[in-house]
């Protein structure tokens, strides 16, 4: 029986209803004997995620922790805490160790390397454990911070989305069921139930841009400009998500109209020339995604669009391996990889 001192908005009834509704919306409910992985770092968000999954998800839940090997004994203590918490919930637990400092690529930040290697290991473990999907603890504040970060760096519709409710990496489905809940709300869920969590000391290191945004920039905007700035940014990201879906669908339709052959990739230049510049830019971005190419800057995308529409013959270097050529009314993509 639930403690009557727990506020109604934090009760099992309300949280269970939210969990069910978001599961139907995102498509991972009903369970149908599915196995899911909850990615648990030990922080408040992921601990709340694991608690909710163990409480309200009636399929098989597995807790997975990736030890990054960055903070020495603190990392090991995080792992042990997640193990003990999982066992207390009667949830299966698995851990994987990676060495971020030694395995990061040249020019890659520790933060980017940790994310890349963590996602790689999660995908590997999902396949090993025969899990249908992976749940992460990203919340509404994470969404707002990502939207703001991307806007400040310079982005279009795709970056303004911030993060999707679901995504797919290497054939593995990722879901973010907590994206509608604020960070402090998740911690309050734990506090009223006397559940503790681990604090990562690197989260206060302002040399990381995301930490600077979270600790300084957003609080300043909230205090000086709009107290609801986090919610407004998150809602803006959701509105951009709907627009992005429309744009992606249109990109595919336009490309299908202009494509002559898929292997090697050839476009009909006469059809390209009938399109507006913005539509040609959509085709270029869709081609980049389809061919797994590095995203072109706005300036270079505009330049390629201009060439595709106005120049009879041209050669455009997309990257070191990919060249775009126009000859005899056709546009060719030449891959030297």
Notes on the protein architecture:
Strand 5 (166-169) and strand 6 form a beta hairpin. Helix 10 packs across helix 12 (277-290) and helix 12 packs across helix 13. Strands 3-2-1-4-6-5 form a six-stranded mixed β-sheet, sandwiched between helices. The relative contact order is 0.09. The chain is α/β, with parallel strands linked by helices. The longest helix has 30 residues, at 229-258. 51% of the residues lie in helices and 16% in strands. It has 13 helices and eleven strands. It starts with 11 loop residues before the first helix and ends with a strand. The model has no long low-confidence stretch (mean pLDDT 93). The protein has helices at residues 12-26, 44-56, 73-88, 100-103, 110-128, 140-153, 157-160, 183-191, 209-224, 229-258, 269-273, 277-290, 298-310, and strands at residues 35-39, 60-67, 92-97, 133-135, 166-169, 172-175, 259-262, 265-268, 314-317, 322-327, 330-335.
Key traits:
alpha/beta; 51% helix; 337 residues; elongated; 6-stranded mixed beta sheet; 5-stranded antiparallel beta sheet
Q: How many individual β-strands?
A: 11
Summarize the amount of helix as a percent range.
Answer: 40-55%
Main pleated sheet:
6 strands, mixed
Query: Taking strands numbered 1, 2, ... along the chain, how are they ordered across the largest sheet?
Result: 3-2-1-4-6-5
Please compute the radius of gyration using only Cα atoms. Answer: 23 Å
Principal-axes geometry comes out as elongated
């Amino acid at each position: 029986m639930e403690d009557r001192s727990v506020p109604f908005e934090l009760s099992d009834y309300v949280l269970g209803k939210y969990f069910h509704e978001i599961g139907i919306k995102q498509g991972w409910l009903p369970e149908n004997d599915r196995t899911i992985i909850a990615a648990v770092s030990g922080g408040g968000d992921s601990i709340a995620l694991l608690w909710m999954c163990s409480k309200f998800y009636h399929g098989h839940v597995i807790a997975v922790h990736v030890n990054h090997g960055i903070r020495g004994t603190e990392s090991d203590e995080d792992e042990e805490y997640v193990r003990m918490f999982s066992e207390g919930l009667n949830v299966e637990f698995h851990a994987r160790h990676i060495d971020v400092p030694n395995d990061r690529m040249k020019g890659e930040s520790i933060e980017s390397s940790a994310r890349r290697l963590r996602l790689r290991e999660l995908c590997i473990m999902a396949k090993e454990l025969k899990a249908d999907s992976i749940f992460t603890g990203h919340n509404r504040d994470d969404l707002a911070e990502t939207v703001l970060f991307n806007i400040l760096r310079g982005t279009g519709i795709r970056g303004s989305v911030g993060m999707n409710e679901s995504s797919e990496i290497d054939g593995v489905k990722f879901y973010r069921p907590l994206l509608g809940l604020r960070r402090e709300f998740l911690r309050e869920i734990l506090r009223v139930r006397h559940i503790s969590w681990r604090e990562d000391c690197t989260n206060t290191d302002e040399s990381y841009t995301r930490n600077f945004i979270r600790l300084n920039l957003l609080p300043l905007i909230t205090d000086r400009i709009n107290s609801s700035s986090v919610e407004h940014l998150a809602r803006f990201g959701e509105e951009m998500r709907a627009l992005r879906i429309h744009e992606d669908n249109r990109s595919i339709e336009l490309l299908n109209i202009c494509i002559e052959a898929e292997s090697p990739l050839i476009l009909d230049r006469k059809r390209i020339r009938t399109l507006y510049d913005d539509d040609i830019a959509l085709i270029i971005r869709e081609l980049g995604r389809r061919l797994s190419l590095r995203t072109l800057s706005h300036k270079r995308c505009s330049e390629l669009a201009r060439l595709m529409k106005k120049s009879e013959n041209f050669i455009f270097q997309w990257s070191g391996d990919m060249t775009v050529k126009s000859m005899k009314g056709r546009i060719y993509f030449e891959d030297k990889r």
